[in-house]
Amino acid sequence: MTSTVTIVARGVSLLFAGLFAGFLLAVLVLETSLREFDASVYTQVRQVELDRLDALASATLLPALAATVILVVAERRGGTGRRLLAAALVLLVAVLVITLAVNLPINSDQLDWDVQVPPADWADVRDRWHIAHSSRTAAAALAFACLGLAALTRRPVAGRRIDSDSVTSNVTTTN
């Protein structure tokens, strides 16, 4: 693959994996603070969250996954960088699996809950969702860290020197 594709994929993977991990962390903080409220408050807030948050999750996770796949395929040399990219991909796939297996089915059920009379097992459902969400938040944060570390382990291509003069000359010749 061309270096341009790899550079774009690296930027996309870092940007979207970081946004996704940050989004999950923000939801985790909100959900943790909701634990002190009753079933009606919890249900109402969850239904407000679910109005748009599933779309945001898809809009950030899917590009991160796709770009990370491109990076893993493009990384020809072995070593730490490739292992970090592979680890990031495995972690992002784990996030997707947890989301599809646990969180989305619960989200779907919660949309039908009556705010005035939530189901009797609402706390058990909340706890199951929270455990799965905590797991995927940790996996997403680790994936982002792996992608960042992989970017730091990149070495310049043999024969190419990267310094401020070459960057400046490349910028001025392309404009």
Can you walk me through this structure?
By secondary structure, this protein is mainly alpha-helical. It has one domain (3-166). It is 80% helix and 0% strand. The protein has helices at residues 3-34, 39-49, 53-74, 80-111, 122-153, 164-174. Helix 1 (3-34) runs antiparallel to helix 5.
Layout of helices and strands:
Layout: H1 3-34, H2 39-49, H3 53-74, H4 80-111, H5 122-153, H6 164-174
Helix pairs in contact: 1-3, 1-5, 3-4, 4-5
Pfam families: Anthrone_oxy
Transmembrane segments: 12-30, 55-73, 85-106, 131-152
Protein name: DUF1772 domain-containing protein
Q: How much strand content do the residues show?
A: under 5%
Output mean pLDDT. 90
Q: What count of helical segments does DSSP give?
A: 6
* Overall geometry: elongated
Number of E strands? 0
Q: How widely separated are the two ends?
A: 25 Å
Largest sheet: none
Helix content: over 70%
Order of helices and strands: HHHHHH
Count of spatially separate domains: 1
InterPro entries: Anthrone_oxy
Organism: Jiangella aurantiaca
Protein name: DUF1772 domain-containing protein
Transmembrane segments: 12-30, 55-73, 85-106, 131-152
